[in-house]
Amino acid sequence: MDPILTKYVREPNGFTLDFFLKHEGYDGLKKALSMQPNDVIEQVKASGLRGRGGAGFPTGLKWQFVDKKTPNPKYICCNADESEPGTFKDHVLMERNPHLLFEGCLIGCWAIGAKVAYIYIRGEFYHVQRVLEAELAKAYAEGYVGRNIMGSGFDCDIVIHRGAGAYEAGEETALIESLEGKRAQPRIKPPFPAASGLYNCPTAVNNVETLCNLPAIITRGAEWFATLGPEKNGGPKLFCVSGHVKKPGVFEADMRTTLRELIYGYAGGIRDGHELKAVIPGGSSVPILLPHQLDVAASFDDVAKAGSMLGSAGIIVMDETTCMVWAARNLLYFYKHESCGKCTPCREGGDWLHKILTRIENGEGEMRDIDLLVSVGNNIAGKTLCAFGDAAATPALTTVKNFRAEFEAHVREGRCTVSSDWRASRMPVAAH
Amino acid sequence: MSFHPLMAYDERFHKSERKVGDEGPPFVFTPERRAALDEILTKYPPDRKRSAVLAALYLVQEQAGYITGNGMRHIAPLLDLTPAEVEDVASYYVMFHRAPVGRFVLQVCRTLSCALMGAERVTEALSEKLGIGVGETDASGMFTLLEFECLGACDRAPVVMVNNDLWHEKLEAANAGRLVDDIRARGEGAFTGCHLKVEH
User: Looking at beta carbons, which residues of chain A come within 8 Å of B51?
Assistant: First the structure.
């Protein structure tokens, strides 16, 4: 497939405004500004573009729900708080193609009638933020952002807002809370952001990659976009492959590409002398797939049919040196650390899952602990305000489901029986 | 914060007046930082100054080295907040240090993708070389060692973020000691930055 989003990422000056303008930069915005906002929304709906942040919700529909009749301002919030373990695609897009994101933000603002787009970037990406800020200043100076954009009479500002280290800020209502200067904790839905979001005004929260797809949809048309992949899974997609592969990286492909092609083709296969054990196909929050389940197209619908989720397309590959109890414990430490603490099942349950996994891994667990994991996990999933609860329960539930024998071996042997060449001999005491 | 669907999510309902101690040296923004904050405040609606609280806290940390009680008390009135509301935010986000830290805060990513590539051994090697545990600062005050959650650069694993703005990629346990020596000799020049790989 001809790359769309990452076509120029390896050009040394690919991130600059000059380069962007010589390669059809801001053409999509120009065309969008000549269309009625509603026609832009219809075109995005027709393209079938689905949100690239994880949920895969149709973007056009999200925009259609934004209350257009309100006297209040409306906002676009760009979710650049890329924190899902195993995901690093927005990192690349923003660093190497910042104007594509600005153009997408402006098209979104025009479509829903917003005058400001806030880009909420995670605090850790400060080196990326410096690129964005320098390029944004150039775009302002050349009249692509700000007052009377490209002489169209359309005014729109873009503001870059730095987060400060919170996975939960990637949840759309928690992102809004954080942008308002509070703890990043989710809100009860409804009302959805489209009705009442940032500053209690109608808001659309869109992922970086989602917004970056807009210019091409406007210039090349909805049909071109929709036919790029399987039905209802159109367009180019960025896949992040990491873990025990030879060539980890970000790969642009369409969603007909299978998980096996991504791992063995694009990422060069498993490191020498080892064999594949398990794959997490969509960031750490989704169920594991086993080696025989990889011949599915890496699309939202096909991966769901295989029993997992495409999520943020962060593909984490593990070979036979990976102890699955250890992997679950590693991720549960992440979830217990990152839980915002608002809902009891997630705040307390995550902590308990981590405790139980730690004692099983250390060989101090009992057989009934394995069922206890499942019981605690099932009492978190679906019982919290946001999807974090489901995400936190998943690593425990999916590893027990697929690798129960390994858990039992830990209990029986009183130690971990999987040898690895990369784990520490003793776990450092975690702090922070 | 609201737990009721019909209750608006804004500041009308609760404003904590709890005291924040006058911990740390006396704090007033330098004129440059005060000007920087005023500039940031123009990006948000005039009645939503609170939105700049993270930016203000970064400025406090830059000036004082960590988030001091006096720093929080200083920025609260600038943002129409009580000091307790500032502390509420500061205590939530991991990039704000609530106690003094070393000149180089080494934050090793510990989440799955980095761990699979040996991050545990990197932390272990750094800990041995520096003679400190995770969460501690060495006697010279030069280094603090922390573990961090997924930094979003998994193909460069194991990744280390230093001081919230510098990066070092693909650090192997065998090279961790050398990196520490290199930082002692060259300071910030020792870090590689972050260079993600992209292919089509």
Answer: 161, 179-181
Q: What is the mean pLDDT of chain B?
A: 92
Measured in degrees and rounded to the nearest 5, phi and psi for residue A107 equal: -65, -40
- For the entire predicted model, the pTM comes to 0.95
For residue A192, the 8-state DSSP code is P
**Domain boundaries A324-413, CATH class:** mainly alpha
What 3-state DSSP class applies to A378? Answer: helix
Biggest alpha carbon distance in chain B?
A: 59
β-strands A75-80, A203-207: how paired? parallel
Taking the C-alpha atoms of residue A166 and residue A251, their distance in angstroms, rounded to an integer, is 26
B42 touches chain A (CB under 8 A): no
CATH superfamily name and code, A17-226: NADH-ubiquinone oxidoreductase 51kDa subunit (3.40.50.11540)
Reported as a single tens digit per residue, the pLDDT across B138-186 is 999 999 999 999 999 999 999 999 999 999 999 999 999 999 999 999 9
Domain architecture of chain B: domains with CATH? 1-99 (1.10.10.1590), 104-190 (3.40.30.10)
Amino acid present at A394 = T
CA distance B54 to chain A (A): 7
Interchain contact, B152 vs A430, CB within 8 Å:
no
Sign of CA dihedral A191, A196, A197, A200: negative
Nearest by CB to B111, which of A123, A125, A334? A334
Q: Does B133 touch chain A (CB under 8 A)?
A: yes
Fold of A236-319: Ubiquitin-like (UB roll) (3.10.20)
pLDDT, position B15: 75
DSSP A386: S
Do A88 and B154 make contact, defined as CB atoms within 8 angstroms?
A: yes
A428, β-bridge pairs: none
From A268's Cα to the closest Cα of chain B, the distance in A is 12
